[in-house]
């Protein structure tokens, strides 16, 4: 059952219409999630700002999609699993084997694997991690700047996971990927 009332693009006025126009220009669509976020423009702006800022970070899109898949799996968010499965395949061009690994916080690439494992440790530790986890990431070449980005991506993905779980956002993506 959906908890919030969406603001459809055709019904958007004022600030929400402006945000939708910006989103349409930036990502080419107005996803269902954002139509529900628009019930409070500050929430939509926050998501857009953090998402946009992290798009300019050092982690490449393929790594960010893997982080999103891993976090969605951990948080059991079907909407985000579906969205990021679609984006991983069609935008980041990640193959099925890597998508499957990412859902388990793993990758065949050692650097990406270390990033995913650190993100998973941070999520499971609710922000606290063992020094060993950080050392393993650093030993694999993960920089302090990348660690900061991992934490920010985890926050962004947790926001959308919780938002969509709470809202039971209707899924518009072609494949429904269920949590394991």
From TrEMBL:
It comes from the Bacteria. Residues 41-116 form the Carboxymuconolactone decarboxylase-like domain. InterPro entries: AhpD-like (IPR029032), AhpD_core (IPR004675), CMD-like (IPR003779). It holds the Pfam family CMD. This is Carboxymuconolactone decarboxylase family protein. The lineage of its organism: Bacteria, Bacillati, Actinomycetota, Actinomycetes, Kitasatosporales.
